[in-house]
Structure of ABC transporter ATP-binding protein:
Amino acid sequence: MTINERTAPASSGGSQDYLLGIDDVGIRFETKRRSVQALRDVDLHVRKGEFVSIVGPSGCGKSTLLRAVAGLTIPTEGTIELRGSRVTSPRQDVGFVFQRPALLPWRDVRGNIMLQAEMRNLDKAAASKRCDELLELTSLSDFAKALPHELSGGMQQRVSLCRALLHDPDVLLMDEPFGALDALTREHLNVELQRLWAQTDLTVLLVTHSVPEAVYLASRVVLMGPRPGTIIQEFDVDLPRERAYEPTLEDPRFHKVAGRIRELLGSPMGGD
Ligand SMILES: Nc1ncnc2c1ncn2[C@@H]1O[C@H](COP(=O)(O)OP(=O)(O)OP(=O)(O)O)[C@@H](O)[C@H]1O
């Protein structure tokens, strides 16, 4: 058995085949005190329906890359294209889930999810129907009228996932979404997210510090090297789209990829 491992970018050219095309992207932050080259020569091409996990040492630019895809940070070099159109300002066609759920404390679960519809002027009836479906999908139907403080951390994060998916975005961007949760809740949410992805054609970019989480969830894992961050290795995850949690973690294919990523993260090229 081999790991499909590449040091070169997964693909180049023919960007029309890809939902997301990141080409030669560099990002430099200039502040009064200093200049930081956060990213350099980042190339990444993602097809519709892929789940790409991004791992790498702290400060290598993972969040910066996600923000650039969302149009919240504009590259100083290179280009990002989403659905064939260049990302030059904040995009409406992405969903973003952050480490903290950032819910409005005075709004109930449904009100927090529907905020997305209000901000984007979506048709209220259609958004409300989709909200019901998402509540069902994330086992939150019975909590639609609950306020955030009445929910556990895991439930709050599921609300923020529903909010990010309400407008049916082309790409779901997740920045350490489960990093603040306890291990068991994190595991449950991994299973739910895996099921959601396996049953839909959702395209996901996930930033995580957890190698098992990265491999369990992804169809591809990209490993970034220390700042200025660039992609140093990519791994295809040769596991079925729908995966049970424990059997997957015991699968030799899982171990092989996770072991190799850990090894590289511990090496001077990839590690903290
Ligand atoms: N708005 C900003 N202004 C100046 N520098 C920034 C800004 N945002 C990020 N940086 C710098 O860019 C680099 C990459 O930061 P980023 O948060 O993207 O890394 P990361 O890989 O997500 O880190 P972590 O894993 O610790 O969350 C860091 O050196 C950071 O200080």
Notes: The chain has two domains: 5-93+170-265, 103-167. The chain has a mean pLDDT of 91.
